[in-house]
Structure formats: C-alpha cells, structure tokens
Amino acid sequence: xxxxxxxxxxLAGVNAAEALRxxxxxxxxxxxxxxxxxxxxxxxxxxxxxxxxxxxxxxxxKESYWYEKNGIDVVLGNSxxxxxxxAQRVALSDGTxxxxxxxxxxxxxxVRELSVAQGxxxxxxxxxxxxxxxxxxxxxxxxxxxxxxxxxxxxxxxxAARSQGLDxxxxxxxxxxxxxxxxxxxxxxxxxxHERNGVDLRCGSAxxxxxxxxxxxxxxxxxxxxxxxxxxxxxxxxxPAVEWLSKSGIEITNGLACTPDLxxxxxxxxxxxxxxxxxxxxxxxxxxxxxxxxxxEQGRHAAATLLGNRDPFASVPYFWTDQFDTKMRFVGRxxxxxxxxxxxxxxxxxxxxxxRDGVVIGAxxxxxxxxxxxxxxxxxxxxxxxxxxxxxxxx
Amino acid sequence: xxxxxxxxxxxxxxxxxxxxxAPSLFDIDDETNKAIVLGGDEHDEEFRTQxxxxxxxxxxxxxxxxxx
Lengths: 395, 68
Known about the structure:
The complex is a heterodimer of chains A (395) and B (68). Chain A has helices spanning 11-22, 48-51, 64-69, 129-138, 152-163, 185-196, 292-306, 369-380, 385-390, and strands spanning 3-7, 28-32, 72-75, 80-84, 89-92, 97-99, 102-105, 109-111, 144-148, 167-172, 200-203, 207-213, 216-221, 226-229, 231-234, 238-240, 252-253, 255-257, 269-271, 276-280, 285-287, 318-323, 326-332, 339-345, 350-356, 359-366. Chain A is an alpha/beta fold and 395 residues long.
C-alpha cells in the first residue's frame, strides 16, 4: 500500500492519519477537507466559543508543523464529490481526481435543515467554526434568542446565551428536553436546570412558521402563539455526511454499513466517526455514534484495519455536555433499556443507570466522575445489573 | 526511560477519561472534580501506553507527558 487518502478534515480523520504513521505506514498520506481551516475541535463551538473570546486558532487539533513533520499533505477547501471504488479514485469539487490504494472515509455529519426555513441565511445553526463566530457576534445583553430544538446542542447554546444576559426561549417537540435520548426524569432534570436559570422552555411545542423582519423574526408555533426573536437558532440534529457517496455503489444504511472492524462494503475502504454504522460486540447491537471519543478511537481503529488488523471495534460510547455550572457525562446506551434506576438526584448531582437483559448498559452521571469511570468498566465487562449497582458507593 | 505526567488544572474539566484509560496514573479529586496524578514525580515505562491513551483521550487536552 503506497498511497492512503483520508477524506474528511475531522477528528476521526486526523486520528486516522496519526495512527497510520504510528503503525509505520510511510507511503503518501493525503488529508482532504471541505473546510478552509485546518481540522479543529468541535465540542467547544457550543461552549467556550460562545462563552469566552476564545480565538479560532485555539481550536486547532494540530498545528501546521505537525502535518509537515508527519509528511501529511493537507488539501483544504476541497470536498469529495464522488468515489469510484473499482478504479480506486475519489473525485474532488475542484474537478481533480485522486487515486488511492487505501481510503479512510471520515466525513462526519451534516447539519439537518429546518423544513420551514430552508436556505434562510438569517437562521443560525451551529456546526462549523464560522457558525460559532457568526452567532457569537450577535450575542448582546437583553436580546431575545429563540432556539428551535431541545437536544444537546440546543441546550448548550441556550445556556451559553442565557449566561451572557440574553433572554432565551427553547422550543422542544417532546414532553421534556432531550426526549429523543432519555425517557423521563433526566430530561426533566435538565428542564429544571434551565428554568432555574431563567430559560423559557416550551415543551410539546412544534414550529409552524418563521417570518423574518428587518430586525429579527416572528416565530409562530402550531398552537398559534407568536414569539418575537432577535436571533433564531436551529438545533434539530444532524445526518451522516454520505450524500457524496450515493452513486458509488458503497452500501449505505444508517450511515456507511461497516464490518465489525470498520471496513466498508468496498475493498480497501475503511470508515471512522459519525458516518460509521457497525455492530458493536459489547452491546451486540448495530449502532452509529456521533461522539468525540468515538471519533478518536474509530479513527485509530480504522487506520489499523487498513493496515491489516482484523480486530472488531468494541467500545463503550462516551458523551458529555456542559450547561451552566453543570457537567453531565454519559457512558453506554439507553436505547432499548428494559431497566432504569435513579440512584442519586439533587439539584447539582444525578446518577442514573440503565440495564438490558440483566446487564448494565448505560449510566448518566452529573457531578460524579468517579461513578462514571466505574460504570464504564462495568458496561465494558457486561457486568450483571444487580452486581454493578450493589458495588456502587452511597453518593 | 521514565516520564512525568502533568495535568493543567485550568484546562481539566473532570471528564474522567484519564481515570478510565490509565487507572494506575490518575484519580479524580472529590472536592474539585478535577484529575490528580497518582504516584511519584516519575513513572515507569510500563505505564507509557496507558499515559499515551489518557493524553489522547482527554477532550480538554489537559495532560502533558514528558520524558525525563
């Protein structure tokens, strides 16, 4: 294998590049990114970037000298448009083509559009560095920000805006925020947190229309109520960025259908990060994970697979969110849990566990990092539910 | 070769990834919810892989490993 191409200037892509060199790959290595900036870290976009005057350069995953030192040719502002898996060629948006012996697909997620405001330039989203810079520039004390979507990104933006003195309204479809991820109490806990901090949460509400004026917008809900906004932000989720592969013949299900070792359906092509759908042996479940740690680990694993390793990617998903003074960490899964238990619940602490088929599969920990570490190990080892909970210290 | 491990406490957010990746090297302080480095100033080579995994897995990039 002489030439490896990595498509996606993402966390997964950079980690794949690093691991390829660590494993001794000394051929040509090229990283293709659609963005103009060197690859950067995304979690701070909805946190520190909105709360502080953090400079964009501080977000870079690696400085330019690192790519030079490791002999990585970085191509910026050029996105992949198509893949020919027979000729082993990727077509780029500038009209050129690149041949490869090995390919890593790490194109991440694309932001989901709000159906009532498609292509509307005044609507904010939060996906790229430029989105965060643009949104931050509009923050000013007393302005009214309306957030469409009660997911994690939405709540983080709401908290950041509220912390800076904006009036904030969140429109969430479900009975509580985060209802797509968690049933019941955990969403209500976050609702309480936001309400104590003065955020107006409209749960069980659906957006009807947005009418844009000179200085903002009138947001109408399906129940007829109208909210006047200075700033409107949509945080309604994302989809795997695999559109460019639609004519390639590669198998696409919920993302790219991969083998347990992260090989795609076509030869010499592996994938890493948000685009990957694979069977995780720890949970014996087909999954796609959009988290930071997963991108790091899959990037490294996919690189090893490309070089001949056949181990399955076995991993306990890990996720965090910071809102106001609260740091929530989550390990494992909640989907199809048949057992759930709130172990601790106060205004600044929450520990909840999830089980399936008698083993512990997930844990939510707020203000309890030690329990988090303990449950991650328990999930990894498929520890019986009773045993995992008995071993927990009284918090 | 031995190595040192330092945690920048201004950067540390208490994600506990270090504790998961390298239980021999890290713990979390119950009071501050931030990472603490276990053991002495210098660590044996046998913990190198753990230390590297913890450094890589720290979302706050708060861990610095240096050769002695």
